[in-house]
Amino acid sequence: MNILDTSNRVEGREMAYNFLTYNEQQLYLLPASIVEWVKDDSLARFVGETVNLLDRREQLQGFYAGYRKDGWGHPAYHPRMLVKVLVYGYSVGVTSSRKLAAGCENEVALSYLTANQQPDFRTISDFRKE
Q1: Which of 33, 50, 55, 125 could be stapled to 97 by a disulfide with Cβ–Cβ 3.0 to 4.6 Å?
Q2: Contacts of residue 96, Cβ cutoff 8 Å, sequence gap at least 6
């Protein structure tokens, strides 16, 4: 028996269980947008929209101070994105940089807030200290 086989047959006979079939390796014609995976009334949407509004009102300018304006050097993660990660983490009771970094890789809400970017725990920790 092939363990990757998702059919309901075992050695020529029907299985008694009636499970919905699923395939973790399902290919999609077009990649799904992460926006479609997050509900409109979710905490992640609220945090994202609130931080975007604060940034448009230039209330996050203090976070930009440590970055070069001349474009030299390796591109940094956007401070607005890192603020979203921290605010979301504080909102759900997660303050550990390592847990937030893991969440950026594994949780849909944080993937939405980071646009699928995955800052490591040191980046999050260093940003918090600044």
Answers
A1: 125
A2: none
Q: Rounded CA gap, 62 and 81, in Å?
A: 14
Cα–Cα distances in Å, from 117 out to 4, 19, 78, 107? 30, 35, 10, 12
Distance CA 108, CA 114 (A): 10
pLDDT tens digit sequence for 49-60: 999 999 999 999
Strand stretches in the chain, DSSP E: 9-10, 13-14
Model pTM score: 0.78
- Helix, strand, coil share of the chain (percent; to 5): 50, 5, 50
